[in-house]
């Protein structure tokens, strides 16, 4: 837990729960990286409606993992079964009173709910239990605020956070409501503008500013993406459920790369057995012998019921997925629910208009699958069993990927002037040279190149290459 969280909870404990300002605490948290070992005690509240027992237990365990990722210590779990959520307090007034008793006994500082609550449900429940209430979206936003490292990620998280808080301001500023009346010339001036109205306007203005800043960053991203396209390297994106092993797979491929001895560990990305261990998108060049070189991007992981505002805020970052030539959908094959994770990933890709991109289903952690479960790879299949930890199946994955990347290759036969050394270098790096002859007018090159590189050669030489 960050030291700023300690400041946050201290401020909160000294001010009435209906009146504390979450924005001050949020900005303190977002801009300090000092950490302490203490965890904040919370109680988990889980409502079961029509879910099966196994599905409900899985959702509770995932909530526990999310709390661990946010440095929260569970002091207990309160469950409730209803045909549908209570419109007023989500769990019902009687269960809310029971929750208040458990909070007093355990010393929990707030509660974390399994699902998302409406602003009215959150306000009413908070009024009864007299401590703050977090729902699933708020918890994920808190985790993202801790993980954000780049300026772009911080702006994206702040945008999503403010959009989430905007409809939940009601009740926070009742003690600051403007008074009407008065004597003399002020008698007919009305109550004036309330504090909540001022805050809504300020937040809306801040969201507008953030979107403008993100739009500028997106322009820079587009320029960078254009430069990478001119280099002729195909783009491969790692996508999948959080904690499926995407970062571990990227590091394994970096270890296998021809430049591994030169770069050492400096190009590796952070990996840890934790939900949302990495947030910022990383792009690395992978150059492995007998495999076409490609650019590999590691994107933020997906999760069930991922906040819609978060997807919107991270749309520019997730654009790396939309512009990829191949998607590697990574799943934890040792998890009994990995097929559900696959569906959630595909649903998120559909929202991003990226489901039609060629893809390979990568069943990671094959070394942890139960005895007797299939881990055998079949040539030509769109799914591959691997272990990023042990290296099992990596050759099969690379062969499948290379076949897809080579499906759009073109043979180019061009005469490059001696002044075109940069273009020749790109062909050497991104293509496979068949022949190269030095003539009086220039260098006669025949090579097999990816479609992107072949198109770039055409643009440079006026379409003089042949396919």
Molecular structure report:
- It contains 16 helices and 13 strands.
- A six-stranded mixed β-sheet has the order 6-7-5-8-9-10, sandwiched between helices. The chain has a four-stranded parallel β-sheet with strand order 2-1-3-4, sandwiched between helices.
- The relative contact order is 0.08.
- It has about 475 residues and is an alpha/beta fold.
- The longest helix has about 35 residues.
Short summary of the structure?
With 467 residues, the protein is an alpha/beta fold. The protein has 16 helices and 13 strands.
CATH class of the largest domain: Alpha Beta
Shape: elongated
Count every helix, treating DSSP H or I runs of 4 or more residues as helices: 16
How many separate domains make up the residues?
3
Provide the CATH architecture of the largest domain.
3-Layer(aba) Sandwich
Strand order of the largest sheet: 6-7-5-8-9-10
Oligomer: single chain
CATH fold-type name of the largest domain: Rossmann fold
Query: What is the helix/strand order?
Result: HHEHEHEHEHHHEHHEEHHEHEEHEHEEH
């Amino acid at each position: 837990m960050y030291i700023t969280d300690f400041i946050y909870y201290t401020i909160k404990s000294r001010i009435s729960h209906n009146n504390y300002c979450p924005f001050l605490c949020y900005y303190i948290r977002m801009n300090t990286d000092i950490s302490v070992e203490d965890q904040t005690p919370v109680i988990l509240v889980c409502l079961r409606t029509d879910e099966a027992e196994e599905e409900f237990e899985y959702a509770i365990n995932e909530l526990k993992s999310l709390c661990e990722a946010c440095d929260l210590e569970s002091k207990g779990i309160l469950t409730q079964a209803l045909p549908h959520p209570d419109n007023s307090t989500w769990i019902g007034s009687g269960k809310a009173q029971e929750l208040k008793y458990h909070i007093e006994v355990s010393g929990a500082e707030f509660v974390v709910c399994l699902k998302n609550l409406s602003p009215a449900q959150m306000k009413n429940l908070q009024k009864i239990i007299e401590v703050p209430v977090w729902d699933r979206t708020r918890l994920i936003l808190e985790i993202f605020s801790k993980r954000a490292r780049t300026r772009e990620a911080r702006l994206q998280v702040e945008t999503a956070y403010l959009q989430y808080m905007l409809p939940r301001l009601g009740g926070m500023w009742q003690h600051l409501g403007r008074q009407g009346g008065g004597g003399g010339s002020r008698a007919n001036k009305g109550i004036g503008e309330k504090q909540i109205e001022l805050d809504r306007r300020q937040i809306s203005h801040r969201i507008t500013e953030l979107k403008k800043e993100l739009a500028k960053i997106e322009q820079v991203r587009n320029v960078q993406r254009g430069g990478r396209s001119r280099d002729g390297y195909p783009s491969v994106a790692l996508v999948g459920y959080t904690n499926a092993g995407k970062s571990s797979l990227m590091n394994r491929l970096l270890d296998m790369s021809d430049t591994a001895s030169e770069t050492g560990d400096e190009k590796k990305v952070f990996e840890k057995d934790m939900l949302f261990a990495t947030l910022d998108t990383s792009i690395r060049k992978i150059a492995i012998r007998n495999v076409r070189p490609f650019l590999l991007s590691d994107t933020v992981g997906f999760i069930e019921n991922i906040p819609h505002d978060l997807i919107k805020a991270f749309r520019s970052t997730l654009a790396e997925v939309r512009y990829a030539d191949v998607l590697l959908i990574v799943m934890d094959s040792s998890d009994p629910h990995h097929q559900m994770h696959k569906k959630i990933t595909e649903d998120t890709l559909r929202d991003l208009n990226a489901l039609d991109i060629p893809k390979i289903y990568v069943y990671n952690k094959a070394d942890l699958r139960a005895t007797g479960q299939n881990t055998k790879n079949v040539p030509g299949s769109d799914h591959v069993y691997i272990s990023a930890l042990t290296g099992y199946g990596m050759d099969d994955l690379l062969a499948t990927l290379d076949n897809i990347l080579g499906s759009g290759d073109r043979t180019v036969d061009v005469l490059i002037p001696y002044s075109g050394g940069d273009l020749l270098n790109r062909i050497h790096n991104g293509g496979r040279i068949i022949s190269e002859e030095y003539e009086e007018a220039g260098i006669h090159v025949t090579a097999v190149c990816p479609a992107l590189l072949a198109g770039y050669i055409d643009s440079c030489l006026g379409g003089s290459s042949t396919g």
